[in-house]
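DNA invertase Pin-like site-specific DNA recombinase: structure, please.
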Amino acid sequence: MNALLIGYARVSTYEQDLTAQRIALERLGVDPEYIFTDHGLTGTNRARPGLREALAACRNGDTLVVAKLDRLARSLRDAKDIVDELTAKHVKLSIGGSVHDPLDPVGRLLFNVLAMVAEFESDLIRARTREGMQVAKAKGRLRGKQPKLSIPQQRHLMELHHAGRHTTAELAELFNVARSTVYRTIQRQTRVEKTN
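Here you go.
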């Protein structure tokens, strides 16, 4: 049986596109039929169905191909688990065309160094995000999720609620929002009324 190239691609959000990774994998020789994907899942999430399928498809002598290491794993522990699974199956790993044999000590060392760099990059992104949020909060720009209903709409909803002639479902339909929004609005406005 011929050794196969098994491709894996991932994007963290549903707004992102897998096209560039698919093209890169095809350029590296992966048949489109053997490209497995995860959409809207972060690299730190280990429960990735596309990755599970890709690893399950790998057989002795095959090569798992990814465009970049951070598409495969964003933590050292995750990378180690994947490498251990590849090693047990005698499967090589190709990162952007550079093939690493997990059975080879140098290949294993290079992979672990790359995994540490990916984890470091992930930590930097988290740190920059926290820093950006702190700056935005200090400048008063970070206010959290805004209510679905405007202040006048919230007052009107409360008037109708206090009148007692409408159910929560009817109020939700009147204001074209979910019932959960009606419940949150009533809770929020009740707290405001109690403090005034």
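Notes: Strands lie at 5-11, 35-39, 63-66, 92-95, 98-100.
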